[in-house]
Amino acid sequence: MQIQVDRDHALISMSGEFTFTDHVPFKQMVEEVFATKGKAVVLDLSKLDFIDSAGLGMLLLARDEAKKNDCALILRHPSGQVKRMFGVTKFHTLFTVEE
Amino acid sequence: MCAQITAHEVKSCVTSWDGASEQSLEAALAPPATQCVEADLLDERNDDVVFSQPAPGHLSLVVSTRSAYRHSIVKAFIAAMQNRTSLSEDLRIRIYSAVQEALMNAVLHGNLKIDPNLRDSLDGLLAAHEAIEAKLNTPEVGRARIRMEAIWNASTLHVVIRDSGDGYDGAEERRDTGDAASGRGLAILQAFSDRVAILNGGTTVKLEFQL
Q1: Nearest 10 degrees: CA dihedral of B99, A21, B126, A29?
Q2: pTM, rounded to two decimals
């Protein structure tokens, strides 16, 4: 999984596959969430091809860490398998998801 | 390279994978391979090679826990399936999602025996990964086998994932995950496959897909 950060616009773009071995980029993502100014950070998922339950769990941990810093985490444009996974696990009840 | 092994009137094509990359695994799984075993796991007894009549649609893979953790094993296996049978995009996504979940459970809980509750916090997650790396460096854990097998005909595909662990007590399975970071695996298996069977004391997951 790769991430690209646009701090000026509080936007983190994720691409590739987000699975249980991606704890290093995940840690980087959490650090970027803390470094980004503002009350909301957007995770652009439009280029994320695949996520497993470990990836979902890491998104929840990122959300929890953002909350501790009085930030909101918004998930934008999930598609394909990622969107299906969100539907199965009812992620729209746990996050703000922008279609 | 394919070792043609003939026993009585049976033929199967056994290949070995060098454990180096997803790309070399895709090459090892390319037709006419029917069985692929990670090179480091091949021994003189060839316990992982099955000398029996392969089903018309059959593909098996045996890898180490270390390789299953570090490489996209499922992605390569699904690509190999697509070389042998036509999978719609919808079916490919469903198979990939379910098999990835089953493999992750086999690796993390079956062979590595990682406490699932560790992944419910950031500190716990980082501690879990340090513990994983330490375990993978021990031969008995790093080389513990993960077996994947696909068997299909015109109407049905079965994928079986087997770990080398001790199994689990079904009563311990978390049903209500709420928004916990872990515990969604079984729900995902059930949502993406047409039938799920947990066998052999929890060491084997059998997934069924209607083609």
Answers
A1: -110
A2: 0.88
